[in-house]
Amino acid sequence: MPTPLPQENTFDHLRRLDGEHVGYIHMTPEGGFVPFDLLHRQRAEPMELEDAESLLDELGLRMFTENWWLDVDGERMQVLIQEVRRDRVHVAPSAEGAIAKSADMRDSVELLLPTDRLHQENH
Fold it and tell me: Which domain of life is it from (predicted)?
């Protein structure tokens, strides 16, 4: 199971450009800042605050357009991320057809965060 997002000394990071929530920053007892993306995945080791903010700004909401796979009964199914909330993510199977990056919303799956069932690589 992935390392849980620390509850204490962790704050939302909003992108300066547009105020969009793009992740979380955890302040360590030693004074470093650890960036976590919207799926609660640690994206780097402790660093300076400005570096953690820049990393999360760069990652942004790109995750919504990337390919994702969900572990289901020992197999992987390609999905699209529909919505991310503080404690959960909703995904839907990618729909076959001519429409790029479309999802079958009838089969939406809700996962509690953090989760080890969602992957960016199909291997």
Answer: Bacteria
Whether the Cβ atoms of residue 60 and residue 43 lie closer than 8 Å to each other:
no
Chain centroid offset of residue 62 CA: 10
> How far, in Å, CA of 26 to CA of 11, rounded?
6
Six-digit token string for 89: 């993510």
**More confident site: 68 or 98:** 68
Q: Compute the distance between CA of residue 23 and CA of residue 13 in angstroms, rounded to an integer.
A: 5
Q: How far apart are CA 96 and CA 93, in angstroms?
A: 9
Residue scoring higher pLDDT (98 or 67): 67
Confirm if 80 and 103 have CB atoms less than 8 A apart.
yes
Closest CA to 53 of 6, 17, 8: 17
Considering the entire predicted model, what is its pTM?
Answer: 0.82
